[in-house]
Write a structure and sequence with these properties.
Helix 1 crosses helix 9, helix 4 crosses helix 9 and helix 5 runs parallel beside helix 6. The chain folds into 2 domains: about 220 residues, 3-Layer(aba) Sandwich (Rossmann fold); about 130 residues, Galactose-binding domain-like (Jelly Rolls, Sandwich), CATH 2.60.120.260. With about 400 residues, it is α+β, with helices and mostly antiparallel strands. Strands 1-6-5-4-2-3 form a 6-stranded mixed β-sheet, sandwiched between helices. It has a 6-stranded antiparallel β-sheet with strand order 9-17-12-15-13-14, with helices on one face.
């Protein structure tokens, strides 16, 4: 009898000694996760627009969620992404009968200048109701970055269907983002801000979380995707609970020189030229651009020339570690700039925007593109793989928006 009692007591000790530890660990993990979720939403912003359509979703009307950016929402090789996970989680809040659509225009390595150019074609034309914007990792601090980011935000806000815009500030693998001007713009427009650095960094610094749980090889891990998706869902839940705003009015612009708003895209196929020179138009296998204007060997490096009436003109060309050309821009026959298509960011081609012309006035200008001759090379044809995928332009006079 006593022996049986000892055995029972021993078994009870084993289970009772282990289980509280496991429960405690799970409880601590849940607290850490919830703290990160709470910290991620650093500004809820005006909630009028999201609540205006909340009842409409419950009534069975269609609701479209868009993600546009350069890092957090990118699909991995298996097709998984923060965008897909967050979309599913928000949709599941309304049950199986809810009618939702997903737009994910996220291109790795790009900035808000590229997003601003592609916005109408890839996002706004599909009338999204909720737009998450993520460009903090690859935007810089120049005036062009600030103006293009604000122009993108204003273009979204000024849509007739009144989408809700959420500023998403993602971090690099060191959990250190630096685009403070995005948060400033968001607060000026009274928009929600989600910040992954604010969420992750305290846990990583305190040793409660390893950065490898979130990032690996500068990519977001599967667990990191789940966390970040929860940040998006957390905003949605909090915004619909906070139904206090009765209107939203878009304020005047922060930057009076918003000449970059609403750029027009001309693809390689549709670009009219005065002279194709040493270039040929060809089809390419690309998810975004289906045509390219490529340098053609053995044609004496003749310039490609086109004419546009504009105040800003941009060239969209692929850059990568495998490209080493320098190309020159001539405006009305005079050389003004030169650029390189080399980039240390990726071994794969990344679309990059090159501003080749800028003015406060709308003028008709002739743009010539030609390769720069390298004094150390006897034949430029042996080294060139230069091409470009399109041109964009704005036609705005200087004024306040």
């Amino acid at each position: 009898m006593f022996k049986n009692f000892i055995i029972i007591l021993f078994v009870s000790f084993i289970f009772c000694g282990c289980m509280p530890s496991e429960i405690k660990t799970n409880h601590q993990n849940n607290i850490v996760k919830q703290n990160m979720i709470n910290r991620s939403l650093i500004n809820i912003g005006n909630t009028y627009r999201i609540n205006k359509k909340y009842q409409s979703i419950k009534n069975g009307n269609n609701y479209t969620i868009a993600f546009i950016g350069s890092s957090a929402f990118i699909e991995d090789e298996q097709g998984n992404s923060v965008a897909n996970i967050a979309y599913d989680k928000i949709k599941n809040l309304f049950g199986k009968k809810a009618k939702f659509d997903l737009i994910n225009f996220s291109v790795n390595g790009t900035n808000s200048e590229f997003g601003n150019i592609m916005l109408n074609q890839e996002v706004l034309s599909k009338l999204p109701d909720l737009i998450f914007v993520d460009y903090a990792v690859f935007d810089g601090h120049e005036q062009d970055d600030r103006e293009n980011f604000e122009a993108l935000i204003r273009s979204c806000l000024e849509q007739e269907n009144e989408p809700q815009v959420v500023i998403f500030i993602n971090s690099k693998s060191d959990s250190n983002q630096k685009q403070d001007f995005m948060e400033q713009i968001a607060r000026y427009y009274n928009l929600p801000v989600i910040n992954t650095s604010t969420a992750f960094l305290p846990e990583i610094s305190a040793g409660r979380m390893n950065s490898n749980e979130i990032f690996y090889d500068n990519q977001i891990s599967d667990s990191g995707k789940e966390y970040i998706a929860d940040f998006c869902v957390n905003y949605f839940k909090n915004a619909v609970k906070n139904n206090k705003d009765k209107s939203y009015i878009t304020p005047p612009s922060m930057y009076t020189n918003l000449l970059v708003i609403n750029p027009k895209l001309i693809t390689a196929r549709n670009l009219n030229s005065e002279n194709d020179g040493s270039y040929i138009r060809t089809n390419i296998n690309n998810k975004i651009f289906k045509n390219s204007i490529q340098y053609l060997s053995n044609t004496k490096n003749l310039p490609f020339i086109f004419i546009l009436e504009a105040n800003n003109i941009y060239l969209i060309a692929p850059v990568s570690k495998d490209r080493h050309d320098v190309f020159e821009i001539l405006i009305n026959g005079k050389k003004t700039k030169e650029f390189s298509n080399y980039s240390e960011l990726s071994e794969k081609d990344i679309p990059k925007v090159f501003k080749v012309y800028s003015s406060n006035k709308v003028e008709k200008v002739a743009i010539a593109i030609q390769l720069k001759e390298n004094e150390n090379e006897t034949n430029i044809d042996n080294i060139s793989n230069f091409e470009f995928w399109g041109v964009a332009y704005t036609k705005n006079e200087l004024k306040n928006y």
